[in-house]
């Protein structure tokens, strides 16, 4: 047995069986380096990127240290964004199946506090959240960290960049002195090293070199003129036809302009940038995740923490001036050994930024002329799914099974024609196969006396409509 097998860690049998069921056979390099010291109770500083398996790297130790019979918060994970917090919580819940009933609660901003308080009152073992909201709960006395055993700072560099340092320090003061602290960060510059030193007790430092040759990412750089950037981006999409792609732009204005242009060409594109209404942002992320939007045109800040399990392409529509950002962008494709395209458009005035990337990543850019793509422009691929927004959620005791039941029963769909179902507090998103979507809606409506915008689920009427791109 190789020493990267999870079996070498002497985990409890049901826990190991669950990992096998999740398809986790060998440890990722970050897990192999961090799990033995983490399970040994040491504090750690680990340099690891999203996609490296870092959630399990801190989650496994945290879960094994907790006592499910004790209804108190024993693990706390701080994350920079809401999306990352959701993603981490889901991964922890999957891992926790191996040890029985563990309650993982997400505390992030942008939503009302009251439901979070109610959930905390029911008892939580692990809290995953953003620093601002965690601090709000501490201030109100609705979160008690006195029994905390494991504290995790995830993406510590991003949290510090986003100005969360003071909040983090205040939260750490509310934690018991005797605890394990694990800090994960993609980068670990000196200022973060100094700022976080007092949160950790004799930490072991772990750096795992990213192996470029294993990443499966083919980087191509395309020379463009000054004024045909939108068209060039559309040509790349038409040529490579990725099932899903993120197109990075440096400004909000460019994101909107490009998303409009691509929609005009028939692509299921949406823009994602800072300062969007939370609801629009949630909607866009839900649609990207459920494949009713396949092209996301985003700024770096807005794209942080997006769950991108199967991204086939990243297109840098504008070159980033920060080589580290560039590497972070393209790291979102070609995950877990799958192949992916990393394409970059560069006008003459941007070549200096490409030089920085070459130096930083120690590689030579492979330049291609746009003309290589040929003139035969294929029509756009619309997204395979459409998203139905249903005005009902957890508050109405709506569950995924209810929706699946209504769609496969009354609406006559096959299970495969129903995509991701996401139930929110007050509203839910369901992805349906585009080809049968209208017919399904008509059957859910069934000539509803309340009007054409209503559908019936489990004998109850809910307002519902398609979300436009
Ligand atoms: P993370 O870096 O935590 O965001 O994890 C990236 C993805 O890799 C997640 O979808 C995990 O479920 C998956 N993953 C984590 N550890 C393993 C492993 N040892 N084997 C296979 N997949 C893994």
Set down the secondary structure blueprint.
Blueprint: H1 13-21, H2 29-39, E1 44-47, H3 54-65, E2 75-78, H4 82-96, E3 104-107, H5 114-121, E4 126-129, H6 131-140, E5 150-153, H7 156-161, H8 165-173, E6 180-185, H9 190-196, E7 204-207, E8 217-223, H10 229-240, E9 245-248, H11 252-264, E10 269-272, H12 278-289, E11 295-298, H13 300-303, E12 313-316, H14 323-330, E13 340-346, H15 351-361, E14 367-369, E15 385-390, H16 400-408, E16 418-423, E17 428-433, H17 437-445, E18 454-457, E19 460-466
Parallel strand pairs: 1-6, 1-7, 2-4, 2-5, 3-4, 5-6, 8-13, 8-14, 9-11, 9-12, 10-11, 12-13
Antiparallel strand pairs: 15-17, 15-19, 16-17, 18-19
The structure holds adenosine monophosphate.
Describe the structure.
The chain is α/β, with parallel strands linked by helices. The chain folds into 3 domains: 6-207, P-loop containing nucleotide triphosphate hydrolases (Rossmann fold); 217-373, Rossmann fold; 385-466, Alpha-Beta Plaits. The protein is built from 17 helices and 19 strands. The chain has helices spanning 13-21, 29-39, 54-65, 82-96, 114-121, 131-140, 156-161, 165-173, 190-196, 229-240, 252-264, 278-289, 300-303, 323-330, 351-361, 400-408, 437-445, and strands spanning 44-47, 75-78, 104-107, 126-129, 150-153, 180-185, 204-207, 217-223, 245-248, 269-272, 295-298, 313-316, 340-346, 367-369, 385-390, 418-423, 428-433, 454-457, 460-466. The strands form 3 sheets. The chain has a 7-stranded parallel β-sheet, with helices on both faces. A 7-stranded parallel β-sheet has the order 10-11-9-12-13-8-14, with helices on both faces. A 5-stranded antiparallel β-sheet has the order 16-17-15-19-18, with helices on both faces. α6 (131-140) crosses α8 (165-173) and α10 (229-240) crosses α11. The longest helix has 15 residues, at 82-96. The protein is globular, with a radius of gyration of 23 Å. The N and C termini lie far apart (50 Å). Residues 211-215 have low confidence and may be disordered. Bound molecules: adenosine monophosphate. Adenosine monophosphate binds at residues 23-24, 27-28, 31, 50-56, 91, 309, 336. The site of adenosine monophosphate (AMP) has 15 residues, from α3.
């Amino acid at each position: 047995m190789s020493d990267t097998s999870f079996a070498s860690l002497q985990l409890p049998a049901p826990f190991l069986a669950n990992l096998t069921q999740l398809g986790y056979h060998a440890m990722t390099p970050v897990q192999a380096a961090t799990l033995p010291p983490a399970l040994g109770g040491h504090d750690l500083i680990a340099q690891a990127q999203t996609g490296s398996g870092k959630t399990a790297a801190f989650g496994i130790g945290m879960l094994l240290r907790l006592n499910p019979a004790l209804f108190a918060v024993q693990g706390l994970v701080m994350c920079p964004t809401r999306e990352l917090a959701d993603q981490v919580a889901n991964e922890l819940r999957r891992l926790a199946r191996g040890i029985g009933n563990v309650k993982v609660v997400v505390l992030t901003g942008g939503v009302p506090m009251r439901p979070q308080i109610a959930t905390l009152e029911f008892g939580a073992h692990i809290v995953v959240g953003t620093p601002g909201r965690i601090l709000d709960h501490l201030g109100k006395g609705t979160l008690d960290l006195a029994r905390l055993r494991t504290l995790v700072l995830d993406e510590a560099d991003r949290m510090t960049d986003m100005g969360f340092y003071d909040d983090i320090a205040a939260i750490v003061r509310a934690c018991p002195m005797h605890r394990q602290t694990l800090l994960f960060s993609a980068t670990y510059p000196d200022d973060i090293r100094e700022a976080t030193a007092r949160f950790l007790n004799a930490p072991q430092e772990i750096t795992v070199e990213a192996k470029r040759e294993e990443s499966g990412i083919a980087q191509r750089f395309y020379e463009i003129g000054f004024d045909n950037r939108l068209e060039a981006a559309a040509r790349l999409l038409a040529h490579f036809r990725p099932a899903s792609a993120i197109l990075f732009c440096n400004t909000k204005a460019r994101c909107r302009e490009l998303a409009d242009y691509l929609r005009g060409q028939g692509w299921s594109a949406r823009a994602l940038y800072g300062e969007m209404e939370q609801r629009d942002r949630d909607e866009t992320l839900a649609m990207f995740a459920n494949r009713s939007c396949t092209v996301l045109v985003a700024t770096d800040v807005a794209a942080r923490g997006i769950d991108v399990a199967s991204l086939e392409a990243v297109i840098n529509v504008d070159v980033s001036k920060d080589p580290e950002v560039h590497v972070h962008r393209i790291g979102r494709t070609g995950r877990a050994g799958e192949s992916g395209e990393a394409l970059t458009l560069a006008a003459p005035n941007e070549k200096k930024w490409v030089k920085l990337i070459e130096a930083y990543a120690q590689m030579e850019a492979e330049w291609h002329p746009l003309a290589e793509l040929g003139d035969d422009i294929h029509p756009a691929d619309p997204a395979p799914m459409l998203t139905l927004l249903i005005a009902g959620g957890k508050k109405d005791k709506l569950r995924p099974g209810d929706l699946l039941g209504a769609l496969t029963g009354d609406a006559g769909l096959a299970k495969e024609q129903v995509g991701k179902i996401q139930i929110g507090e007050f509203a839910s998103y369901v992805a349906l196969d585009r080809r049968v979507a209208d017919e399904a809606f008509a059957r859910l409506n069934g000539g509803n006396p309340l009007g054409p915008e209503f559908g019936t689920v489990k004998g109850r009427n809910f307002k519902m409509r398609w979300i436009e791109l």
